UniProtKB/TrEMBL annotation:
Name used for this protein in its record: Peptidase
SUPFAM superfamilies, per the entry: Metalloproteases ('zincins'), catalytic domain
Gene3D superfamilies noted in UniProt: Collagenase (Catalytic Domain) (3.40.390.10)
InterPro entries in alphabetical order: MetalloPept_cat_dom_sf, Peptidase_M10/M27/M57
Pfam families: Peptidase_M57
């Protein structure tokens, strides 16, 4: 079965990112292309925050209006600005195998989320349907204090979150980020999903929204779902244990398959009830 590796633009409670690339049965295809070198100062700061610096590089991150912002990519799926890295705290608790970030969205918050419909970054009809399904799944949860108010259009500046298509990104998957200051991460990208059915697109969007409200990858400590053995690091982001006995059904695994149904696993639901 084909598997895809998420890259979620993770906002280390500030601005981090994760993204995705594609994996065939026995071969992981790394979709990223190295561009610029990261300074020794920033690499040292990342290492002290217990973030893996292998293959760290500088890349351009596309915003909904088509403009780009320079970010530093580490671990193949985390993105930070230079300022974010310099402001990192130096943590020592990277051995706990946990599931959420230190920062969360404010309890009881109604999150305004918009599906972008303008220009080349517009969501397709299938992607809009998948976004609606993903939001419906979040709003259907009982015992969870946050909720989502969905609209479609181009006025994303006033919204808490915007979901949009990035046509320039290689691979298949999405990117998002982690909460800060009681707010979800704003920018959720998806890309390369034209050949996947709506359920898979729903899964990707659900996953990225999950990062935006504080989920870490279920297998952040080894990325085993991608056929890897690589620790993403806890560091300043945090990786707080939410328990669970059925990780194989989680929407928050680092890699997803082409047969995903887009629905939460029981551990995802329990975790959201604990978080919110």
């Amino acid at each position: 079965m084909k598997k895809i590796k998420f890259m979620a633009l993770a906002s280390l409670c500030f601005i981090l990112g994760l993204q995705s690339c594609q994996k065939n049965e026995d071969t992981i295809i790394d979709e990223e292309v190295a561009v610029k070198e990261v300074s020794a100062e920033l690499l040292a700061k990342l290492a002290k925050a217990q973030i893996n610096t292998d293959n760290a590089k500088i890349v351009d991150f596309m915003l909904p209006d088509g403009s780009t912002k320079e970010m530093i990519e580490v671990e193949g799926d985390l993105f930070m600005s230079e300022e974010d890295i310099l402001n990192l705290n130096e943590e020592t608790s990277a051995t706990d195998r946990n599931y959420r970030t230190n920062n969360l969205v404010s309890q009881g918050k109604t999150i305004t989320i918009i599906g972008y419909t303008g220009g080349s970054n517009a969501l397709s009809t299938k992607e809009r349907t998948a976004l609606q399904w993903a939001v419906d799944n979040y709003n259907a949860l009982s015992g969870v204090s946050i909720s989502f108010q969905l609209s479609f259009g181009t006025n994303y500046q006033s919204k808490d979150m915007v979901v949009y298509h990035n046509p320039s990104q290689s691979g298949a998957g999405g990117s998002a980020g982690f909460p800060s200051n009681g707010n979800p991460y704003k920018f959720v990208q998806i890309y390369g999903l034209d050949n996947y059915d709506t359920n898979v697109v729903e899964h990707v969007i659900t996953h990225e929204i999950g990062h935006s409200v504080g989920f870490r990858h279920t297998d952040w400590f080894n990325r085993a779902s991608c056929g890897q053995n690589q620790n993403e690091g806890a560091g300043s982001i945090g990786a707080i244990d939410l328990g669970g006995n059925n990780p194989e059904t989680s929407v928050m695994l680092a890699c997803f398959s082409s047969g995903e149904d887009g629905e939460f696993g029981i551990d995802d639901i329990n975790a959201l009830q604990i978080m919110y």
